[in-house]
Amino acid sequence: MLELNNIHTSYGPVEALKGVSLKINQGEIVCLIGSNGAGKSTTLMTISGILKPRKGSISFMGDDIVKTPPHRIVEMGVSHVPEGRRIFPRLTVKENLEMGAYTRSSKLKVKSLKFKDQLDKVFELFPVLKEREKQMGGTLSGGEQQILAISRALMSEPKLLLLDEPSLGLAPIIVSKIFKAIKGINQDGVTILLVEQNAHAALNLSNRGYVLENGMIALHGMGEELLNNERVKKAYLGE
Amino acid sequence: MTGHRTQNTDKKSPGSGFRALSSISRPVIIALWLALLFLPFKGIKAASILFAVLSTFIFLLRFLLDYIKPLKEKLHDARAHLTKRLRITSFQTEGASLIIRYLLLLFIISVPFFARDYFIDIAILAGIYIILAQGLNVVVGFAGLLNLGFVAFYAIGAYAYALLNTKLGLGFWTSLPLSVGLVTLSGFILAVPALRLRGDYLAIVTLGFGEIVRLVLNNWDSVTKGPNGIGGIEPPYLFGISLNGLSHYYYFILVFVALSVFIVRRVYVSRIGRAWVAIREDEIASSSIGINTTAYKLYAFAFGAFWAGVAGVLFAAKMRFVSPESFTFMESVLILCMVILGGLGSIPGVILGAIILVMLPEMLREIQLYRMLALGSGLVLLMIFRPQGLFRSSPLTRAVLRGGKGVSFRS
């Protein structure tokens, strides 16, 4: 579904990604783990087109998307939940979700559900949002904001969901709730690329995982395989 | 619901730091500060009188506000109760506000029949500033891009009409689209390099642009006649009648104002307006939900410039004379003040802000020397007591869609 081939991305003279290649198949949950500054978020931003790679190719459903502008990539079916949630704090929950459906009115977008049905679907998945429908986004708790950010991304009916550290700054019990929800979204037919610091939880959830170190893929394998890998254990799981 | 909102704004308002101070010491500090500002102009005696008056006044005001708040809530409850008992439908209350609106409209239309020429003249000026402020409101209020050189577009519009009319002999109706087109184009041209920048940097670049335009107009003697300005501009003709008289021009401007309000509002509630709001609230988030941020910021700049161009042409046609003096940096600041005073992003607010800031200097003509002082301290007071402006704009379209009902003084 998505294939990155030898991607190099830099911020000015600093090269953050030094040849990242990875592959995601339809229906999978793939996680990308690594320490701070390894290039996890950069990888996501490169996929969603916010950053342009200096070298390499990205193909999504067979189309090369390196030169595609970010809004077009969303229309193609890749939704990005940015790091730190970035909901619209002064808009209500419902308006946030409406904003998420922004691309739906464009002609290019193929949609299977009506806006109203998509909204109901999201409310069904996260009933807490229905309760808070008229509340300002900024007044929600951190966990609810994360849920809102994910839901907003779902409103565009993505085929591939890019999640950037959904567990950031949340209590363990909320994290497990969110991870359960991610699993549910995946079972609904959305492919997921998950970027996480919380390696244990992420690897447990995912089919496959990649370990990113200093802008390069250091390891990759099945979720369980990586969980039992000595190197991963030492570096990320603290065992 | 209302409770939630008030809480929310309380938390956000920049004045919240002040709130920690006791309610007695705060008015004293504000008064003291204003009195100190006054000191160099009027000496110690006047300053101390001002201090005494202001501190009691602000204290009383606060007291009154505290007293009014529960009263207002009670009144609101009572009204709701009454409505329920008398079974007044929402249709009827809407009818009442409709009547008020019609009365207002009647007043606006009948102004030339009873007002003095002086007043009509000011009203025309107010109309031009309303159009200008609408334009700036698109850029600053909707899209959240600070533009300190907005007057440049106004100047280009005015000079374009002046030159087309005096040099090429083109009439108003031919020049209008040409001039406005030119201004819109210049909006695009400024936007292309400026949009790589954000916040303060953008403000500085636009400020520079404004100064460049004014200096070019001032120094390009062979075309613009420099500081002497261009005179002898024709007023517009409509069906062969020259719109020379003040009352004619009043209605002429009124049509343009109505048009600008209508179009800006329609664009605001459209997909484009929604994209602007998203960009203002969070640029990264809006690009992640599939909004083409560069394009929409470009549109905001060009659309704002478009209205500045319309205002510029109308200004030149009204004054029949343009000179660089009318397009100084202070003018940009004044327009920005209108937008901020009325409430960033609120269409009725911006209209009110423009009217107030045009009328105020006329009313304060007696104490001309202190006009800027009064304006400055007024804005400071506004920022302390009502940082969101006279009208609070709801971030999204909900208020506009319901005929502006949500936008009110109620908080």
Overall description:
The complex is a heterodimer of chains A (239) and B (411). Chain A has 239 residues and is an alpha/beta fold. Chain A has a single domain, classed as P-loop containing nucleotide triphosphate hydrolases (Rossmann fold), CATH 3.40.50.300. Chain A is built from 10 helices and 10 strands. Chain A has helices at residues 40-47, 70-76, 93-100, 115-125, 127-131, 142-154, 172-187, 199-205, 223-228, 230-237; strands at residues 2-11, 14-24, 29-34, 55-60, 63-64, 78-81, 160-164, 191-196, 208-213, 216-222. In chain A, strands 6-7-8-3-9-10 form a 6-stranded mixed sheet, sandwiched between helices. In chain A, strands 2-1-4-5 form a 4-stranded antiparallel sheet, covered by helices on one side. In chain B, the strands form 2 sheets. Chain B has a two-stranded antiparallel sheet. Chain B has 2 domains: 2-86, no CATH class; 117-401, Orthogonal Bundle (ABC transporter involved in vitamin B12 uptake, BtuC), CATH 1.10.3470. The termini of chain B are close together. Chain B is 75% helix and 2% strand. In chain B, strand 2 and strand 3 form a beta hairpin. Chain B is mainly α and 411 residues long. The chains are: A alpha/beta (239), B mainly alpha (411). The interface between A and B is medium-sized, with 33 and 24 residues.
CATH topology of the largest domain in chain B: ABC transporter involved in vitamin B12 uptake, BtuC
Q: Using only CA atoms, what is the Rg of chain A?
A: 17 Å
Major sheet of chain B: 2 strands, antiparallel
CATH architecture of the largest domain in chain B: Orthogonal Bundle
Q: Considering DSSP H and I runs of 4 or more, what fraction of the residues of chain B is helical?
A: over 70%
In total, the number of strands of chain B is 4
Provide a quick synopsis of the model.
The complex is a heterodimer of chains A (239) and B (411). Chain A is α/β, with parallel strands linked by helices. Helix content of chain A is 37%, strand content 26%.
